[in-house]
Design brief:
Length: 629
């Protein structure tokens, strides 16, 4: 443990090529790097396919290199050619390796003359892991089809052949055709006045990693929320969305005051249909967001603070591998809290920090040791399935710890300097630590020891002196919850009439894993939680009520998981179903109906829960699990 950071800092000084390769990409960036991508794509709803070509500009690093190795998944490749200075094409030989379940198919292009540009003609599969194709019936307005991408973590390769590693950055231009009347948007500057003529052009002049490549198309209206921000959504949703997100411009201002200018130009938000598998995705210039945060009272807009924060932590300074993802998500969760505090006050920011800290305290002990580390070893962790609260909540907690020790007068300019120093670069944890050592720890001695930092970054669990904010409102809820569960306080005497979304979340999070049925029924009778329009509350309510054995909520829980596809909001409900008698069979029925509307990632997530529960069932409920081989 002592040796590790010394070694780590030595490693940070190594040139890029000497760094461990990204285990989730076949790319060989020491040989050649993609520096720019030109996309020429047609969106074909009838076939659920993107078809066209990607022209990659190349920076050959090794004079002896003769191959360009790319990541692909389920692409059908038509042809590959080299382009000379005049754009004249000549065919290149290539081999597409058999599909690996995790990584896709390695595409090896023989390019012995090291051409400056290579063009790949291809089409995507209807099952592309990074795309979802929606029928009109699956949209809010039910009139037009819709499609969108979700490239993070390693799904860009399912719609563009490229070097799909966050260590590699490129600029891009795109020419996209679509049915007339629909609007196409990308993770680039978007023009709200663009005619809906089926012919769109985009440019991203800043070098971005592949996981930030993004596209969507559908019947999209636009409503401005400020001079450099607008909301894009289906016509029946756009006014509600613009109202919910009316503080966007203030959020940009607050972030700039703390961390320097917003460098991307416009910041727009695309509100997707409810099947979007995440809460938000920080696609450059155009955050993609779930409609589940449109609850009418702006209580869930920290999600926008989060995605906006990625414009500094993540999109500007990027984790070089998925193992270092806490550099994106931990920093962003910290910055999110600072934006929330600036707009809505310290009490709300503290509540949100407490909510996630408490959840992490509950969950971290049950994780495999390596997953408890901010910077785990080996470097193979980090694909979607392995992403956990550690990157977000232990990461942001570490930064709040540093903030507390150094004070904001020192820490805020330090973080701003960090963003400036590494702007438009992809870095490892060890590079971040070397900068931390030189610019914070060594400059202000006596505040934080290297052992402490070591423990936060490479240690398991949560350091003992990790600071937690006070929240009088949450303390009051702890007391009321305890009295209520003990039967001393009737449900209708809970002070819940004025509870905010966060207070409800905290109340429900703190319930026992399997609460008493009569308590849950009393709660529902008094506060009508079944059928709540707030899915953050619904997720917590249904999972606890199901665990308590309340079959009366099953139908509403079914509607909750069928109506939305955001994985975080439906995972606990499926998990609760499979643990109660008859619940697995019911969940399977629900899933069979919901599946056609789910995103490929959501399908995979639910199938895993159901499969694991089935395996357990077969072993029999009373027999202990077989010892691991
Ligand atoms: N970049 C993430 C989403 C992501 C992470 C997608 C890893 C795929 C792999 C995004 O910024 C995020 O964290 N979204 C959260 C928002 C929440 C923490 C406010 C989400 O989707 O719930
Ligand atoms: Zn994030």
């Amino acid at each position: 443990m002592q040796l590790l950071p010394v070694l780590a800092i030595a490693m940070a000084a190594l040139p890029l090529a000497a760094r461990a390769a990204d285990p989730l990409s076949y790319a060989e960036p020491a040989e050649v790097r993609v520096t720019h991508v030109d996309l020429e794509l047609a969106i074909e709803f009838a076939k659920k396919e993107l078809r066209g070509d990607a022209t990659l500009s190349l920076d050959w690093k090794n004079p002896k290199a003769g191959n360009l190795v790319l990541d692909t998944r389920d692409l059908s490749i038509g042809s590959v050619s080299a382009l000379d200075g005049e754009g004249k094409a000549s065919r290149l030989e290539y081999t597409l390796a058999p599909r690996d379940k995790e990584l896709g198919s390695k595409l090896t292009i023989a390019a012995p003359t090291q051409p400056a540009r290579v063009r790949i003609s291809y089409a995507t599969s209807p099952e592309a892991s990074g795309l979802q194709w929606l029928t009109p019936a699956q949209t809010a307005d039910r009139k037009h089809p819709f499609m969108f991408s979700q490239s993070e973590s390693i799904h860009a390769r399912s719609w563009v052949p490229l070097q799909d590693s966050p260590a590699i950055r490129f600029t891009f231009k795109a020419h996209v055709t679509a049915p007339k009347g629909l609007r196409v948007v990308m993770g680039a500057l978007n023009d709200a006045r663009h005619p809906l003529d089926g012919d769109f052009r985009f440019e991203q002049p800043h070098p971005i990693p592949s996981y930030l490549l993004a596209i969507a198309a559908g019947d999209l209206a636009v409503k401005e929320t400020g001079p450099r921000s607008a909301v894009y959504a289906e016509p029946s949703v756009v006014a509600r969305a613009a109202h919910e997100f009316e503080d966007t411009e203030k959020m940009i201002d607050a972030a700039e005051k703390l961390y320097g200018p917003y460098r991307w130009g416009r910041y727009d938000i695309l509100v997707l249909p409810p099947s979007f598998p995440y809460g938000g995705m920080e696609n450059p210039n155009m955050t993609f967001a779930t409609p589940t945060v449109l609850v009418g009272d702006k209580s869930l807009v920290s999600l926008i603070a989060h995605e906006l924060a990625h414009s500094w932590s993540g999109n500007l300074v990027t984790s070089a591998s998925w193992r270092d993802i806490w550099l994106n998500e931990g920093f962003t969760t910290y910055v999110q809290g600072r934006i929330t505090e600036a707009l809505y006050g310290k009490a709300l920011a503290d509540e949100e920090a407490l909510l996630s800290a408490r959840e992490l305290q509950k969950s971290i002990g049950a994780m495999p040791e390596n997953a408890q580390r901010l910077a785990p070893e080996p470097r193979s962790v980090g694909a979607d399935d392995n992403l956990s609260d550690v990157a977000y909540d232990k990461g942001s907690w570490f930064l709040r710890f540093l903030e507390g020790r150094y004070g904001r007068a020192v820490f805020d300019p330090y973080i701003r300097g960090y963003f400036d120093h590494f702007a438009f670069q992809s870095i490892s944890t060890e590079e971040m630590l070397a900068y931390l050592k030189a610019n914070l720890v060594d400059k202000h001695p006596g505040k934080v020891s290297w052992e402490e930092i070591n423990d936060w970054v490479y240690g398991t669990g949560i350091p003992k002196d990790a600071p937690l904010p006070d929240s009088p409102s949450f303390d009051a809820i702890d007391r009321q919850r305890a009295e209520f569960m003990d039967g001393k306080l009737p449900a209708d005497k809970l002070g819940a009439k004025d509870w905010s979304t966060q207070e409800w979340m905290y109340f429900l999070d703190g319930l026992p894993e399997k609460p008493a049925l009569d308590r849950m029924r009393a709660l529902d009778k008094a506060w009508k939680l079944t059928g709540t329009p707030n899915a953050e509350i619904g997720m917590r309510w249904y999972s606890h009520a199901i665990a308590a054995g309340d079959k009366d909520v099953w139908k509403a829980a079914d509607q909750h998981v069928t109506r939305i596809g955001r994985m975080y909001l439906i995972r606990p409900v499926y998990q609760a179903f499979v643990k109660v008698p008859g619940g697995l069979a019911y969940a399977e029925e629900v899933y069979a109906k919901a599946k056609p509307g789910y995103h490929p990632l959501t399908q995979k997530m639910v199938e895993r829960i159901l499969d694991e529960a089935k395996k357990k069932d077969e072993k029999g409920p009373d027999k202990p699990a077989a010892p691991a081989a």
